[in-house]
Amino acid sequence: MGRRMLALLLAGLVALAPGCAGEGQVSFSTQSRTLRLWVGPGAGSPLAEQAELFARQAAEYAEGSLAVEAVWEEPEAGGWELALLDGGQLAQAAPVFAMFSLPFLYDSGEHLGRALNDRQLLGSLSRQLEGVGLRPLAALYGGSPRLITAGPELRTPGDFQDLTLALGEGQSQQEAAFQALGARVVSAPAGQAAALLGRTAEDAGPVGAAEASLAQAQALAGQVEGLTLINSCHATAPLWLVARSESWEQLPEWQQAAVLEALAGLSGRMALQAQEEERTAREALEAAGAALVEVERPLLAQAVYEGGDYQLPDFFDRQLYDWIQEYA
Length: 328
Hints:
This protein has twelve helices and 13 strands. It has about 325 residues and is of the alpha/beta class. A six-stranded mixed β-sheet has the order 7-6-10-5-11-13, sandwiched between helices. The chain has a five-stranded mixed β-sheet with strand order 2-1-3-12-4. Helix 5 crosses helix 12 (about 320-325) and helix 8 runs parallel beside helix 10. The two termini are about 35 Å apart. Pfam families: DctP. InterPro entries: DctP_fam, TRAP_DctP_sf. It comes from Candidatus Anaerotruncus excrementipullorum.
């Protein structure tokens, strides 16, 4: 999907370039302006209700002069003004965005939000995206998978030595990080790694830990004796709400303010929803006799990014890494 995604991000800017629009093209009107919000596939279906509420609130705050229409299917080139995309999708336009999805960067969704929504950082990212006509408006957090185990607790770097770990496919940097900690990593189709817990993987031995959603962990709590949920911080990553720069700049300031106010509501609701899902899961797991463990996240990050066994990707930025850690 890489070339297609990049084409969607870049195409349509030609139509907005000076001299390219036909005389009959309709210009924006402050009386009836519609922004199409593309919810990319990496955002996930649970965001449907939140995106629709964001759209309604933006219209309300703009006193009816602005409408936001959520688009779920992949649009034609240039067929959106706002987009909700994951870091992998944005990294096709600017590789730096892959940096923010690396493992062990954040203690929590709150940590992620504080670091990535700093106005100075957003301004720097906007400048890096100027060449492709995109503007990041906010980093959002909607939850992330954890690890589960029926064996010893996993807290520190040494606990992962010689562990066979199942992860969902498509997480090359997570795999490399756990391998740097001494684990053997086996891949499973996305969302199916939890089913491998306790099974024997070819050439890797019994799977001692596996990636799982909170819902999967709850379902297994009554089936797997001695289950432990590890708040592993390995897959905590943002979704980005971005605007096409030219479309955004054509909005008067008060309409921009309406969108940003609605966006603040969206960010807050997503954070509260993630917190509520975690609280409910923790209560259910504790009631089922499962243990809950927090990893020593800074120690894991130090072992991975400073230990020498992990090959830092080309997009790794030490200054950004240090910036994020300052917000912990």
